[in-house]
Design goal:
32% of the residues lie in helices and 22% in strands. By secondary structure, the chain is α/β, with parallel strands linked by helices. Helix 8 (266-281) packs parallel to helix 9 (325-337). It is globular. The chain starts with 8 loop residues before the first strand and ends with a strand. The structure holds zinc ion. Residues 72, 74, 231, 441 line the site of zinc ion.
């Protein structure tokens, strides 16, 4: 045997949970050149690998786990708003408006002021968005854009003026320009009505975009996440991610799903795939940044998910299907024929039923399709027969407890308590043999390794415990973000568990997440996150 080279990083801990099936916890782990090189059951068992340049971390009370994947999130969106006014920290409108006033005081007059997008108005004491008048009172000298998610905005008067929106403006199809009972603008714009605003917003420079990705990816890493599967990357933003990678600005690995939301016709789908094929032909994939496939959506979210039974209090409203099944079938077919994978957003039970019909047709046309090519994103309201079909078809499902955590109040309003409690039936999915992976859907839900584990094991939400019969145990919840996640991206030989030769993507925790008191998980942060052998965050 040739002697091993000295370790670059050696960690001694109370427990190193490798997540290799059947393997008891280890006490020491060594890392060299971005890979795990050795593990030992004894804390001092790897001391022979200590050289003059080895960083030795003695953490006798700590536990080590693989770094987590967030398998459905939106890093690119997060990067856009990471420097926005942090209104997600406000608990009421007074606090919300004070944050805007504070930012205005140190921003040159005339410059846009924009907020972060990861907040919910139902979590403010007043349970509503601010109005144009309130924003005008905060500042009349700046255009102000209050944004929640991608498709909800409130503007102050200066911003409405710049966007050319007046009392006489008509919303584009599929958009809403909200008005009060007297017909005046409230400042609120929904869905496609946000487009005129996007056209007048100053576009950030490439350097600003890279800076946003640097900050946002570091924020993910600070919560124990080492890989994000970004489920909505505009195809032109691949170049921005590429530039960020080249500058070493991506603290986490990125697996990108290119947005197919604007591709409706076969020609548009082909044009998207041409650009993806060019990326592949140029050999631009590497272990840090990989193109995973295409993202489509078959229905809306809390307010427009396609349901079998009508919405609460709206007997004629069942949400919306965004595709004719035949058209979606053709689109998915084109994607898989070129060797790409597809994730489709399906939120309501009707949306999921129609999607499974489509996936079944695709699998009939392509009987040899590699497992994991077709993925259900969310599957929120999956019914028993739908779960059985998805499992029988071998279709993985990405689930996001944080959507229930932050969204429960809004969902109860839209769907009633019973259906909200039935969201994300994780216990059933796992018992029935589904490949499930965990994510956040940030900016709609909060991300973070252990807040997700806490949520899946308690079913805790902002509306209290919801549907406790669907909870899973801690080891299962951890697997959804590690072992299972790596299977989803086809990387389970090198990621998701800590074995010699695997990527050195790991996290160090001040308490053992597998057996600390459950409520400690909610705010538990790692003391260190290591990606590719390099410490990207430490506290
Ligand atoms: Zn999403």
């Amino acid at each position: 045997m040739t002697p091993q080279p000295p370790a670059e990083l050696l960690i001694r801990a109370a427990a190193v949970h490798t997540l290799v099936p059947g393997e008891p916890p280890r006490r020491a782990i060594a890392v060299t050149d971005g890979r795990v090189t050795a593990l030992s059951p004894a804390p001092d068992g790897l001391d022979a690998l200590i050289g003059p340049d080895t960083e030795v971390v003695d953490a006798p009370g700590s536990a080590v786990l693989p770094a987590f994947d967030d398998t459905h999130t939106h890093l690119v969106l997060a990067a856009h708003s990471v420097h926005g006014v942090p209104v997600h920290r406000a608990r009421d409108l007074a606090g919300f408006l004070a944050l805007i006033r504070e930012r205005a005081a140190r921003t040159p007059a005339g410059e846009w002021i924009q907020t972060t997008i990861n907040w919910q108005e139902v979590l403010l004491a007043e349970q509503r968005m601010p109005t144009t008048e309130e924003l005008d009172a905060a500042t009349a000298d700046h255009p102000v854009l209050v944004r929640r998610g991608a498709y909800n905005m409130v503007l102050n008067s200066a911003a409405l003026r710049l966007a050319g929106i007046t009392d006489a403006s008509e919303a584009p199809p599929g958009g809403v320009i909200e008005r009060d009972e007297r017909g005046r603008l409230t400042g609120r714009l929904i869905n496609r009505a946000v487009e005129p605003v996007e056209r007048v917003l100053p576009s950030p420079t490439l350097a600003e975009r890279i800076d946003g990705l640097r900050a946002a990816s570091a924020d993910y890493a600070a919560t124990g996440i080492g890989t994000v599967r970004d489920c909505l990357v505009p195809v032109e933003d691949l170049d921005v991610l590429d530039a960020a990678r080249a500058e070493g600005a991506l603290a986490v690995r990125v697996r990108a799903l290119v947005s197919g939301f604007a591709a409706r016709t076969p020609d548009q789908v082909d044009a998207l795939l041409d650009r993806m094929d060019a990326w592949r032909a140029d050999g631009r994939d590497d272990d840090r940044l990989r193109l995973w496939g295409v993202k489509f959506g078959i229905d809306g979210g809390f307010e427009a998910g396609a349901l079998e039974e009508p919405y609460q209090g709206q007997p004629c409203y069942h949400g919306r299907l965004l595709w004719e099944p035949d058209e979606l079938l053709e689109a998915v077919d084109r994607v898989v024929r070129r060797g790409w994978r597809v994730g489709v957003h399906a939120w309501g039970d009707r949306g999921l039923r129609v999607l499974l019909d489509v996936f079944e047709q695709v699998l009939k046309r392509h009987p040899g399709l590699a497992p994991g090519t077709l993925v259900v994103e969310h599957g929120g309201l999956a019914r028993p027969d739908q779960r059985a079909r998805a499992v029988a078809l071998g279709i993985p499902v990405t689930v996001q407890h944080p959507l229930l955590h932050d969204g429960a109040l809004a969902q109860q309003r839209a769907w009633g308590e019973e259906r909200t409690a039935a969201l994300f039936p994780l216990r059933e999915w796992l018992d029935e043999g589904a490949l499930l992976t965990g994510g956040s859907d940030f900016p709609v839900g909060p991300y973070g390794a252990m807040v997700s584990v806490w949520g899946m094991t308690t079913r805790g939400t902002t509306a209290g415990v919801v549907g406790p019969e669907h909870r899973i145990d801690r080891a299962e919840a951890v697997a959804l973000h590690t072992v299972n996640a790596a299977r989803l991206t086809g990387e389970d030989t090198v990621r998701g568990s800590l074995r010699p030769g695997a990527f050195a993507d790991l996290t160090v925790w001040p308490l053992d997440p597998l057996d600390c008191p459950v409520d400690a998980l909610r705010d538990l942060l790692p003391t260190r996150t290591v990606v590719d052998g390099r410490t990207v965050q430490r506290s």
